[in-house]
Amino acid sequence: MSGICGEAFVVLAPLTATAQTVIYGRNGLAGQGSDVSEVHFYPASEASGPVKCDSAEVEAAATFSVILSKPAGVWGAESGSNEKGVCIGLTFSEGHPVDGKLNATDLVRLGLERASSAAEAVDVLTSLSAGAGPDGESKDSPKAAFVICDGAEVWLLNIVGSLWAAQKVTSSSLALKPGLSVGAQIDRSSDDLGEKLKSGGLWDGSGELNFGGVFGLDATRSWPGSEPGAEGSYGLAQIFESLRAAGADQKALSSHVSVLSGGGGLSCHWFTATPDPLESVFKPFVFTPGAKISPLTKAPEGESQTLLHKLHGNRKWEAVGDLLRSLEGTCVDEVNRFISEHSGEPNQELDELMKDCVEAEVKFYR
């Protein structure tokens, strides 16, 4: 059974327009469950009692502030970022959830709430996932693939049952479709990975171990639109173009972009919160002590849609599309200018940045 999936695209220095920066982009893909995506912001909190996730309960821990893109009604997330400049995206999940054990979307949210770096997020997810699968592994075990980024490095993490493998990305760009993304380069793994795969009849032990290949689930894809090329040339406009080009290939749901600063500058996170990036606009968010987002990106209690999704669904794009794209372009220029002129310290001028952009967009749909 296929679960929540997405396509992810990552660009690293020296290809990024700003030095010491990682650019992450993800399109959600239509699958099982709701096509409605919510965007939620949760401020940092102290540990207080057990945490009830969708599929399990875990011990409490202090949390960082997070912004999450999530299927409507789900506790966890499919993509998101935290105040420490860590970003996690779910690119693939498959298999029936195991009762009483964490599912893939639970892991995305918990990883963002608890990790201050990409490497630490690998630790958090693998520790929590020790209880995610059934005893013993097979081709039918629950599977999940994650992209984990901060401003300095990128990791791929694949989990199958109680087994996992992780790869530190060394290339300057990466394009992934749903599947298992860790191949023969395995930089970290669960204990005795090869032996357990052999004892489970999943690998005969011959040749080099290719984790994704064992399960026949390759995740590589060609780059949509213009592939990153010249040094210092890839920025926000290019990742938006890439996600829109990918969205033209198949039905895409909501999109998320993060520009993660590894040099002490401000990171900025962009969400459509609506399906189809070709006919959606990206709205920015920056973590500040007083950050707020619009209630229009959250489904009211008892309802299955956000108001933004409902209004967007009735859009007449041919009438408002050019104006909204112009608004998006102006917003990109202003945010980039602000970030270039200010240090990494959050500024109260940015508290309601996303809220203002969402509410400006909605005026075009009414």
Strand order of the largest sheet: 3-6-7-8-9-10-11-13
How far apart the termini lie comes to 39 Å
Global morphology: globular
Q: Main sheet?
A: 8 strands, antiparallel
Radius of gyration: 20 Å
Helicity level, as a percent range? 25-40%
Report strand %: 15-25%
Low-pLDDT residue intervals, each spanning 5 or more residues: none
SS-based class? alpha+beta
Give the count of helical stretches.
8
Order of helices and strands: EEEEEEEEHHEEEEEHHHEEEHHH
Average pLDDT reading: 92
Number of strands: 16
In short:
By secondary structure, the chain is α+β, with helices and mostly antiparallel strands. It has helices at residues 104-114, 118-128, 193-199, 211-214, 236-249, 307-313, 317-341, 353-365; strands at residues 5-12, 21-29, 37-42, 51-52, 57-58, 66-71, 79-82, 87-94, 143-149, 154-160, 163-168, 173-176, 188-189, 252-261, 268-271, 283-285.
Primary descriptors:
six-stranded antiparallel sheet; globular; eight-stranded antiparallel sheet
Could you explain how this protein is built, in words?
With 366 residues, this protein is an alpha+beta fold. It has eight helices and 16 strands. It has helices at residues 104-114, 118-128, 193-199, 211-214, 236-249, 307-313, 317-341, 353-365, and strands spanning 5-12, 21-29, 37-42, 51-52, 57-58, 66-71, 79-82, 87-94, 143-149, 154-160, 163-168, 173-176, 188-189, 252-261, 268-271, 283-285. The strands form three sheets. The protein has an eight-stranded antiparallel β-sheet, covered by helices on one side. A six-stranded antiparallel β-sheet has the order 12-1-2-14-15-16. The mean pLDDT is 92.
